[in-house]
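Sample pair:
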Amino acid sequence: MKNIVIAAGYATRLGELTKNFPKPLLKIGENTILGRMLDDIDRIPEIDEHIVITNHKFAPIFEEWKKGLSYQKPVTIVDDGTETNDTRLGAVCDLLFAMEKLGIDDDMLVVAADNLLFFSFQEFVDFAHAKNTSCIMCHEQPSIEKLQRTGVIVVDDEMKVLNMEEKPQEPKSHWAVPPFYIYRKEDLDLVRHSVENGCGKDAPGNLAHYMVEHTTMHAWPMSAGRFDIGSLDTYYEAIEKYGSS
C-alpha cells in the first residue's frame, strides 16, 4: 500500500506564513504537521512508501526536509510543475499526476497534509481490509452550518456508503467526511478515468463522491478527533494546544 500525501496547495489563507513555505512543514512544537502524521503512518506494516505530491514552488523545500528524515519506508517527492495558486492542478489531478508519473498500481492510502490526528491510521487500514472495499472516513458533526461546508454521507447499518453530497444545503445525515481515503488496487482504473468522466478536480472529496457512485465504498467512523489547520488562527491554536505534546 502506498501512502499518498496531497500537499500541492498554496495555503493562501495563512497569508505571509505560507507565501514561500508549505503549510504541511510548519512546526507544531518540535515536529511538523506532516511529520506528526507520517510518524504514525510509517509504523503501518502494509505501507511500503510515502509519496508526497507538491508543487514546483515548494518541491525544493520538501526535498531539503526529506534529507533529515529517518523513516522505515522510503519517501518520494513528486513535483506537479505548478508555481501559483491560479495554475494549481487541484487535489484530484495531483493524485492522477502522481499515479501516472510513478506507475502506481497498488492499494493507496490518500491523505491531506494539514490535520493533526488523535488516532492511528492502522485502524482505518484494518477496517478497509475487513470490508474488502475502498473506504472513506467519517465523523459525527452536529453543526448543520459545518455540514454545509463539507462532504456528507448516508450509510447503512454495515457502514456501506449509500449516498454522498458535497456541501449540501440540506444535509441528509450528520456523518461528515474528512480528507482521508483508501482506494483499492481493483478500483484504480475508476480513479484514473474519474476526471475525464466528470469528476471535480479541486477537492479530494470530489473523487470520493465520484467513487461512491461507481463502486462499493464503506466509511470508517473515526475513533478519536482531529484538528484541522486551515487558517492562521487555527495554526496558532494548534501550537498552543499541542506544541508541547
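The radius of gyration is 17 Å.
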